[in-house]
Every structure is written in C-alpha cells, then in structure tokens.
Amino acid sequence: MTIRTALCLWLVVIHSVYGQSDSTNQKIYQVTKKYELTGSILFIGVSSVGFKKLDHLASFTAEDVKALDINKINAFDRPVALYNPAGFERAQARSDLFLNVAILSPVLLMADKRIRKDWLDLLTLYAVTHAVDNIIYFASAYSIRRARPLTYNPGLPLESKIGEAKTNSFYSGHVSFSSTSTYFLAKVFTDYHGIKGWKRILTYSVASVPPALVAWNRMEAGKHFRTDVMTGFAVGAACGILIPEWHKRRKNMEKVTLDPYFTPTGQSGLTLGVKL
C-alpha cells in the first residue's frame, strides 16, 4: 500500500462510517470545510505527479556515483553509508508498514464519542495538515540534491546505485509523513480532553514511536542519513502540532470583536469585546 493510497483510504473510511455528525457541542477547531477540505484533498491527490517528477529529477548516473567520496560525509552521518546491504529490502518493507500504520492512526480518534461528533472538521484539519507537510517537503526535496547513503555503499553493485530517486535523501518524506500523522493524533486527543503536564508528555512520547521506527528502518534500508530522518521527524511533528493549534487559535479569535461607537455628543472610538 502506498502513502497516497493509505491516506485516501483513511479519508474514505471516515466519510463512510461517520456520515452524520452532532453539532450541538462546542467545537475545538475552526475550519472552513468548503475550501480547506476540497483544496487539501485535491493537492494531496495531484501531488503523486510531484513525487514522480522528483524521482526523475533525482536521477544518478555511473559517472555521478564514481565521483562520490565517502570521506566528505560528516562524521555523524557517515556510518549509515556502510550499513549491511543484506538487510536493505526487509528494512524497506518495515518502513512502509510503519508509515502506513502511522498515517491511518488518527482513525483511533473516532472511538472517542466526544471527538467523533466533529469528524468532518477533523477530516478537513487532517487533510490540511498533510497538505502543508507536503508543501514543505517538496520545497526542500526539489531544492536540495543529496545522494542517498546506498550510493556510497561499497557492498552494492553499481547498477543498484544509478537511476531515479537516488539524490533525494534530504529530508525523509516517510518520516515526516508519519510524524505528522501521529503527532496530529496526539495533539487532537490532548486538546479535546484538556490533557496537560506529564500526561501530555507521555501522550506525545507514545506518538513518537511509529515515526521513530520508520526513521530507523529508512536508515537501515540505505535510504536516508541520520540528519535526514531527524529533520523529517521535526518537520512532521511541527506540522502535526502547529496546524491544529493555528486552527484552534483562529477559532478563539472569533470571540474577540472590535467595533466603532458614536455618542450623541459627537464622541467616537472603538470598543473591544470578548464573547464568553
């Protein structure tokens, strides 16, 4: 199952199972479903074309491989270029599995009756969060050419080091997409239940496990360096937290009003009001 297929499946499942919502309770986030949901799903759908073009852009030739110097890799990342190729295929399969589990993980929110009532808002918010994450990823991956660790590996034949998708190592999209998903799950859950302190830290710690597993296996598969997966983790986590937080703050801003006033004596000014 591909990344795009997994995300689309999540959208379809939520839409099919929870076709009715209860809007009697106060919502946590302010979303504009008409524009945000439509635009985000459209962007996620057509981004598959962007991934294909990126793979082509990141092509490597035999001459490119021969010009590589493993000693030019920083000391922190260098060991990854020497991982045993015998485990590459299994690690690749594991990373894809953990990625798909992470992407589908927010469906767990639907087991909570308090959260389930806002299923369409959360569907919209989840799509927007991934769309933003994709935009940041494309901006980086299209701009930076970094050879994957496997292209340096002396244990691999030359034919395994050339072709498409060999110089888009920075940063890891797999890790970014997975941390976006699980941190979104943690953010929404803690917001709805007002979880603070150590319980909040514990929730985010649990949310870190799937993307950490993806990161480990992406390195074990020779796809990314340590700094690649660390950056991907950070970007995804930031999206998973900050996009819902922005929509939460936007909702709160609607409670604040600024209105002009005029008096019979000719005085005028502005009144600041807060709706409670």
Automatic annotation (TrEMBL):
Residue ranges constituting the Phosphatidic acid phosphatase type 2/haloperoxidase domain according to the UniProt record: 122-244
Q: Which CDD domains match?
A: PAP2_like
State the organism of origin.
Spirosoma radiotolerans
Q: What is this protein called?
A: Phosphatidic acid phosphatase type 2/haloperoxidase domain-containing protein
Note the SUPFAM superfamilies from the entry.
Acid phosphatase/Vanadium-dependent haloperoxidase
> Cross-referenced InterPro entries, in alphabetical order?
PAP2/HPO (IPR000326), PAP2/HPO_sf (IPR036938)
